[in-house]
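Lecture notes, unit on binding sites. The following record was shown on slide 14. It pairs a sequence with 2'-monophosphoadenosine-5'-diphosphate.
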Amino acid sequence: MAEKKAFVTGHPIAHSRSPKIHGHWLATYGIDGSYQAIDVRPDDFASFLKSLGANGYRGGNVTIPHKEAAFALAERRDEAAEAIGAVNTLWFEDGVLWGGNTDGLGFAGNLDDYAPGWADNGPAVVLGAGGASRAVIHALKQRGIKDIRIVNRTLARAQELADRFGIGVSAHGGEAVGALLADAGLLVNTTALGMHGNEGLAADPAGLPGRAIVTDIVYVPLETPLLAAARAHGLKTVDGLGMLLHQAVPGFERWFGRKPEVSAELRRMIVADIEGH
Ligand code: ATR
């Protein structure tokens, strides 16, 4: 049988760690397959998608800035993609191009690994109201969290998301964050604050109760200023790398026919890459 082919596309795409993740799994399971990074400019994205089948691809991942275009162009979409309004995974079923979104699953899978029971810990505070925030809120709702508080510099964007996700999701400006943390069980940063070269703290975790869990979807650096402050305060912290690893699982299974494991070895490999070894 022909080699199984998949891709990740974005613009730029050179920095993507997805080829390392999927390449590791292909080698581990001895699968005759490939996973290639392809830089596609926004103007070329529609024709790129049209030619997938003819080029022998079983599907692939889509990242910035193509996630919304992939949502619009997929012939069918799964429930998570509909809820989030973006597509990060494409695959064919009976010749039909499907678009899904696995970011929420990745977020939840990471917390399941490192903070079991996280969904029963009380109200959640989500910092930020962009695309990443939508995936996180979807996951929180899916896992039954009844009180989700979106905090954003621009209140109107938080309100848009609260309206989109409905009952149990509220919108707040930055000034409210202190009061919102006082009885929260989970704090999630989805903003670029704390990312390498973007210093700053989106909220002070010292205001959280002692049982609270703090997580960041930023994973470069692995320990963001928010996670460092939470750890210094004795709180449970979970870094964002596991979300990246877990969001890759459903795509690999669809294209290559085997559910891969998010192993300690895979994590070590990507950590070494992040740390530049
Ligand atoms: P993504 O798709 O990665 O979530 P995005 O849609 O650009 O990216 O959203 C970025 C989020 O980070 C927003 O919530 C943004 O706040 P605004 O809606 O007010 O712009 C937040 N953000 C980015 N830089 C920030 C900063 N310096 N201070 C506070 N919030 C910031």
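Take-home: The longest helix spans residues 18-29.
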